[in-house]
Amino acid sequence: MSYTTLLTSLENNILTITINRPDKLNALNKDVFTDLNNVVDEIENSAEIRSAIIIGSGSKAFVAGADIAEFSSYNKEQAMALAKRGQDIFFKIENCSKPIVACINGFALGGGLELAMSCHFRLASDNAKFGQPEVNLGLIPGYGGTQRLAQLIGKGRAIELLISANMIDAATALSYGLVNHVTTQEELLSKAIGILTTINSKAPIAVANCIKTANAIFDETKNGFDEEVKAFGNCFETQDMKEGVSAFLEKRKANFTCK
Ligand code: COA
C-alpha cells in the first residue's frame, strides 16, 4: 500500500513505518491519522508482515505532538471528534494482534508520546525527550495520554508530568519503565529489529494471545484471568502448539505455521 505521510519498508517480515513530516517534527495531522489507521489494517491483513516498528523521520523527533495548527480553531464538538478518532486509532494499534514497537528517536511529545504508549513496547535513542506539554496550551492529552501514562509509570509520576509539562530524558524514561531499552540513534533500529526477529520466530497465535490477554488488565469489561484461561485453552486447538510441544520433546527446532 502507499501512504501520503508514511514511508514503509518490509524486510524479514518486519514492517518499518516512518512518519514522514520532518519539517513539522512529524506532528500528527488528519492525514497521518488516516495513514496510521490504514497501516494497521495492512499489518493485520498481510501474511508477510509479522511485526512492525514505528519511527519518526529525521534525527530530531519521533513525533512532536498533534498538529497544533490544524486544531487551533476547533470548537468543542470538533475537538471531541478529534480526540475520539485519535483514541480509536491508538486502541487499534494497542489491540493489533501483531507486535508494534515504537522506536523513539527524538522528541515524543503530546500525541507523539500517546502514539508511542499505544504501541506494545518502546525503545528510545539516548537523545529522546518525553513529555505531555498540553497544559502549556491550555489543553490536556486527548488520545489516551492521561490513562496510558498512569498505567505505564504510575499515577504519581504521571500526574507530575501531566500538570508540569516537564520533559524527561531517555535515562529517566528507562528508570520509569516507559521504555524498555535505550541505545544510540545509530543502533536504535537494529536493536528493535533484533528483538522482533526473536519474537517473529515464536508461535504467532500464541504471541497474539499474549498481547490480547495482557491488554485485558486495562479493560474494565474483561476479567484478565478469565481471558487467560480461555486463551490458554484456545492454544491447545492450534497446530503450532502441537508442533512446539513435539519439537521440544523431540529436541529439535519448532517450525511454526500460524495454524
Ligand atoms: N504541531 C504543529 N507543528 C509543529 C509541532 C506541532 N505539535 N511541533 C513542531 N512543529 C513545527 C514548528 O511549528 C516548526 O514549523 P515551522 O518551521 O513551519 O515554523 C517546525 O515544526 C520545527 O519546530 P520548532 O519549534 O522550530 O523546533 P524547535 O527545535 O525550536 O523546538 C519543540 C522543538 C518540539 C520543543 C517545539 O517544536 C514544540 O514545543 N513543539 C510543540 C510540542 C507540543 O506542544 N506538543 C503537544 C501538542 S498538543
Key words describing this protein structure:
2 domains, four-stranded mixed beta sheet, globular, 10 strands, 2-enoyl-CoA Hydratase, Chain A, domain 1, 259 residues, binds coenzyme A, six-stranded mixed beta sheet, alpha/beta
Please render the helix and strand layout as text:
Blueprint: E1 6-11, E2 14-19, H1 30-45, E3 51-56, E4 61-63, H2 68-71, H3 76-94, E5 100-104, E6 107-109, H4 111-118, E7 121-125, E8 129-131, H5 145-153, H6 155-164, E9 168-169, H7 170-176, E10 181-183, H8 185-200, H9 204-215, H10 224-235, H11 239-249
Parallel strand pairs: 2-3, 3-5, 4-6, 5-7, 6-8, 7-10
Antiparallel strand pairs: 1-2, 8-9
Helix pairs in contact: 1-3, 4-5, 5-6, 9-10
The structure holds coenzyme A.
Coenzyme A is lined by residues 24-25, 27, 64-69, 107, 109-111, 133-134, 137.
Walkthrough of the structure:
It is a single chain. By secondary structure, the chain is α/β, with parallel strands linked by helices. The protein folds into two domains: 6-200, Alpha-Beta Complex (2-enoyl-CoA Hydratase, Chain A, domain 1), CATH 3.90.226; 204-249. It has eleven helices and ten strands. The protein has a six-stranded mixed beta sheet with strand order 1-2-3-5-7-10, with helices on both faces. The radius of gyration is 19 Å and the shape is globular. The two termini are 26 Å apart. The mean pLDDT is 97. Bound molecules: coenzyme A. Residues 24-25, 27, 64-69, 107, 109-111, 133-134, 137 line the site of coenzyme A (COA). The site of coenzyme A (COA) has 16 residues, from helix 2 and strand 6.
